[in-house]
Amino acid sequence: MKTIATLIIITLGFASGVMGQDQKAIDILNSVSDKTKAYKNFSADFTMSLVDLQSDIAMKKTGSIVVAGDKYRVKLDNDVVIGDGDNRWTFQSESNEVYVDYEATDEDNALNPSKLFTIWESGFKQYYDGAGEVKGRKTHQIKLHPVKPGDSSFHTVKVHVDSEKLELLKVEVMGKEGDNYTYELQSFKADQSIPAGTFAFEKSKFPGAEVIDLR
Q1: Is the pTM of this model over 0.70?
Q2: For 41, which of 37, 68, 97, 185 could close a Cys bridge (C-beta 3.0–4.6 Å)?
Q3: Of the candidates 32, 89, 53, 72, the residue with the CA atom closest to the CA atom of residue 205
Q4: Which segments of the chain does DSSP mark as H helices, in order?
């Protein structure tokens, strides 16, 4: 089973260089990016579902994310990823281990989770795919195809954007080998008060965990 860090990178790990193919899609996504970047911080609760057709696996996890600039804290069930802008701590509850490494950069072909709400900004061709609906909310559906498909483990990412509020509601990642991920937002809040220490790793909060430094 893939770790939380891998699950996030599957969604975010793309080569750079957007080649927009559809002006309507570009305009919508640019508006979403501009709105998201105007926030001092934001938080969201979401569900992550995986359907792996080859392995006959289906699972669902609940998660949350807090972002302020390039800092973030992601929780997916009992696993946690914390980034302070320079370093990243990944706690795996099953093994009770914490892996420490440097934050990914664009040159690593992986973007950090703070980019979750602007994933389309690099590495994609963008196509408007019509109007839709998510839980009664009208949406724009936009398909993203990797600029370098040979370097990607998926063939399509489909994003669903609230057509009135221009907020991301749902992301579907369709894998080449039948492993499909769906991230669906349950709540979203912006410019809230964030508790001190949110973006810092405190070992005392992970009792007994082995810290493995990969830097």
Answers
A1: yes
A2: 68
A3: 89
A4: 4-12, 23-37
CB-neighbour burial class of residue 22 (10 A; exposed 0-12, middle 13-18, buried 19+): middle
Domain count across the chain: 1
Residue 186 token pair: 């349950």
Q: What are the CA-CA distances from residue 88 to residues 27, 61, 69, 99, 127 (Å)?
A: 33, 21, 15, 8, 33
Domain that holds residue 46: 4-205
Q: Give the chain's largest Cα–Cα span.
A: 52
Q: Residue 210 domain-assigned? A: no
- Residue 1's SS3 state is coil
Instruction: Judge whether 58 lies within some domain.
Output: yes
Handedness of CA 194, 200, 202, 205 (dihedral sign): positive
Task: Please give the C-alpha separations between residue 12 and each of 134, 139, 164, 192, in angstroms, as whole numbers.
Answer: 22, 22, 26, 25
Judge whether 97 and 107 are in contact, CB under 8 Å: no
- pLDDT score of 19 more than 90: no
